[in-house]
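Subject: Sanity check before I submit

Could someone independently write out the structure tokens for this chain? I want to compare against mine line by line before I put it in a report. The sequence has 164 residues.
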Amino acid sequence: MGSPDTTPPSPPAAAPEHGLLPWLMVLLGILVIAGFSMHRSAWLDNRWVRSQLCTLGIALEPRDRDWLITDATMQWQRHAHAQSSLLIRGRIKNLLACSQPTPNIVVTLFDDPHTPLTTQLREPQLAIPRRQIPAAAAPIFTIEITQPPAQATHLTLVAKATSH
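---
Independent answer below. Compare away.
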């Protein structure tokens, strides 16, 4: 009879690479782009996303939510010629990670917390004048209102983003 076959068996054939990982990455990319485009306004309301897009150099529409007004005070100024003015001071903080144009401020004066007397859109006078406020900066601002209603006791301040 013959001699037994002593050659070792050959290893099994390698499974062909189908490249599944690249296709999964493409699918993930499509899902991310579709999700972003479907919920664009919600994503652009997110301050972190806006900061990242801004630092990438993508032009964004200015939003009022990108600003925070803090430490606001109001002080009556009496003048010799019998007219008074209201001096408002505070800080306006840029909440994004990139510089933005200085916003205007809407000042609403009240005689009690629920009855508005007057609303004015004012340009704040910064302690250090600048057209752009750097990322995370909070410069001091001043607004002077001449001839305000005498019964004004409360105020609200709202930043209005500008696109200088």
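---
OP: Matches mine. For the report I'm noting this point. The chain has two domains: 20-55, 64-160.
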